[in-house]
Amino acid sequence: QVQLVESGGGLVQPGGSLRLSCAASGFSFSTYAMSWYRQAPGKERALVASISSAGGTTNYAEAVKGRFTISRDNDKNTMDLQMNSLKSEDTAVYYCKARKTGRPEYWGQGTQVTVSS
Fold first, then answer.
1. Closest among 97, 115, 114 to 106, alpha carbons compared
2. Nearest to 94 by CA among 61, 66, 117
3. Per-residue pLDDT, 39
4. pLDDT tens for each residue of 19-68
């Protein structure tokens, strides 16, 4: 059974930091590219960052470049998102996604991040 479980969300003040984690099971994690998406209230789900299967290539949305860092540990089947210098506009539900050509995509259930003073 495929599972992606996000954790690490919460309430943080502007300028603060959070580290999100995504724990994967039930599929060959190291062969899948992984991504973080977010969905703010009233907005469409949007890509935040992605990382290749081996971790050698990363991409970021312009809005988070220089503040967020995506990483993965293929031995532990986990992916992280380090978020620094958080802004109110980063408030959203954050989701992890697994993708591999020719296979179904897998999504986690999401974790809420709220940036507010």
1. 97
2. 61
3. 98
4. 999 999 999 999 999 999 999 999 999 999 999 999 999 999 999 999 99
Report yes or no: 14 and 117 within 8 Å, Cβ to Cβ.
yes
CA dist., res. 58 & res. 60, Å (int): 7
Of the candidates 35, 85, 87, the one whose C-alpha atom is nearest the C-alpha of residue 59 is: 35
Give the residue among 45, 7, 18 at the shortest CA–CA distance from 116.
18
Q: What are phi and psi of 31, to 5 degrees?
A: -100, 0
Asked if 82 and 12 count as a contact pair (C-beta separation under 8 A), the reply is no
Name 3's bridge partners.
25
pLDDT digits (tens, 9 = 90+) for 65-84: 999 999 999 999 999 999 99
Cα 109-115-117 angle, rounded to 5 deg: 145
Q: Which residues contact 55 (CB under 8 A, 6 or more apart)?
A: 71, 72, 74
3-class SS at 29?
A: helix
Binned at pLDDT 50, 70 and 90, residue 89 comes out as: very high
91 bridge partner residues: none
